[in-house]
Amino acid sequence: MTRTRTLGLIGSGLIGTSLARLAVAAGMEVVLSNSRGPDSLAELVETVGGRARAATPEEAARAGDLVVVTIPLRAHRHLPVEALRGKTVLDTMNYYPERDGRMEELDSNALTTSGLVQRHLVGARLVKAFNNIGSHQLLTLARPAGAADRSALPLAGDDEAAKREAADLLDALGYDAVDEGTLAESWRSEPGTPVYTKPYLGEPPAGLGAEEYFPWYLSTPGQCVPAARVRELTAQAVRGRAGGVLPAGAAR
User: Fold this and answer.
1) In order of start, what are the domains of the chain with their CATH numbers?
2) 252 residues of the chain, pLDDT tens digit each
3) Per-residue H/E/C for 69-127
């Protein structure tokens, strides 16, 4: 089994930061990037550790054996198409109309979010992953292979070899993988579906107000969601109107 040696990250927000930490802990090299330039990442690189370095999005795309794109969906057209051509690209992006603006192809369910991104990234092998778990739970729920309390995450894609690469990465970072199908079926883990964030969070404290929810979301360690449960939840999903609602206090 070939392991990812270098993980490229386009996007350095909450999910990107958690993935960088997990990858460094797994012994990988990490190349971080964002839209503001490498200088803006100096503090993050220092806290993540010596295997991490900062670069431009194009440099991160070219350096990565696998590349994760974790930016607001509205910015997907800025992803470097040529640098990502031929790469396996993991897409964490979700559609939040209040942040991203309305997109008719998503509102009409003509495309999934990953279908939209794949259309832009000509020649890349896109896999939907890491889009249905909170950034803090992504860190705290990671477990070694074989652990009794190991959680699973769904993934979707049209290229079987790319999905195997993505599953290998999940395994290295501390998760089992559940194949939920093609990119056209990736809606099964999008906002509003049974497997989206809530199973990993557990029940919020009684009486928690809307303004208090997001700080709790960012700090609760969460609970194990094994592969069998992920399969059940993705199978239960019924497709509704695309798009989620950001909790009060989340970045727009």
Assistant:
1) 6-236 (3.40.50.720)
2) 456 699 999 999 999 999 999 999 999 999 999 999 999 999 999 999 879 999 999 999 999 999 999 999 999 999 999 999 999 999 999 999 999 999 999 999 999 999 999 999 999 999 999 999 999 999 999 999 999 999 999 999 999 999 999 999 999 999 999 999 999 999 999 999 999 999 999 988 988 888 888 899 999 999 999 999 999 999 999 999 999 988 776 765
3) ECCCHHHHHHCCHHHHCCCEEEECCCCCHHHHCCCHHHHCCCCCHHHHHHHHCCCCEEE
